[in-house]
Design a protein that fits this description.
Layout (H helix, E strand, L loop, with lengths): L3 H4 L25 E8 L4 H13 L1 H4 L8 E2 L5 E2 L7 E6 L1 H13 L3 E6 L8 H9 L8 E9 H7 L4 E2 L2
Parallel strand pairs: 1-4
Antiparallel strand pairs: 1-6, 2-3, 4-7, 5-6
């Protein structure tokens, strides 16, 4: 048996158990929604990882249905639930980031932003203040997460490429 995270892009249809695993012998799940992160292409490796983690961290609180069931190993040790579907990571130039941001807002998609200013802050209060201090068209975006219908997210990411 393989889990849905390994197989869900292999086919167009399928079934899923409540625990989020594919039923042995069944087709994998294809979600109607998409979770995507867009990173600016000039970030250092550590920045890419940090930005991605921060961006997806808020999704479960804003859209609880994206969170799957808790995990448990064969020894009955409990682990936290995670997103129920893959997160696709893309990259693009500063202009691509700005265009994707504008498209995400115009489509009213669930959106998270990470600006260059946040690398210089050390806590949530200062992070929020740094974003609040800048108008949306002047944000120095280095990361953007979007969630919504697959087609809408695909349109937002036009011009971006899959992260290597």
């Amino acid at each position: 048996m393989r889990n849905t995270y390994e197989t869900q892009t292999e086919t167009e249809s399928g079934t899923e158990t409540e625990s989020g695993t594919a039923v042995a012998g069944s087709a994998p799940v294809r979600f109607d929604t998409k979770v995507a992160v867009l990173l600016r292409d000039d970030l250092e490796s550590w920045q890419r990882l940090n930005v991605t983690a921060f961006l997806v961290s808020g999704l479960g609180t804003a859209v609880p249905e994206v969170i799957g069931e808790p995990y448990e190993d064969a020894d009955s040790i409990a682990y936290l639930p995670m997103l129920r579907q893959p997160v696709l990571v893309f990259e693009g130039a500063k202009e691509t980031m700005a265009a994707a941001h504008a498209r995400a807002l115009s489509r009213s998609l669930t959106t998270a932003v990470f600006t260059a200013d946040l690398f210089g802050t050390g806590n949530d209060r200062d992070n929020r203040a740094a974003v609040r201090a800048v108008g949306r068209d002047a944000l120095d975006l280095v990361g953007l997460a979007v969630y919504g219908p697959r087609n809408a997210v695909d349109k937002v990411l036009k011009g971006a490429r899959m992260h290597p």
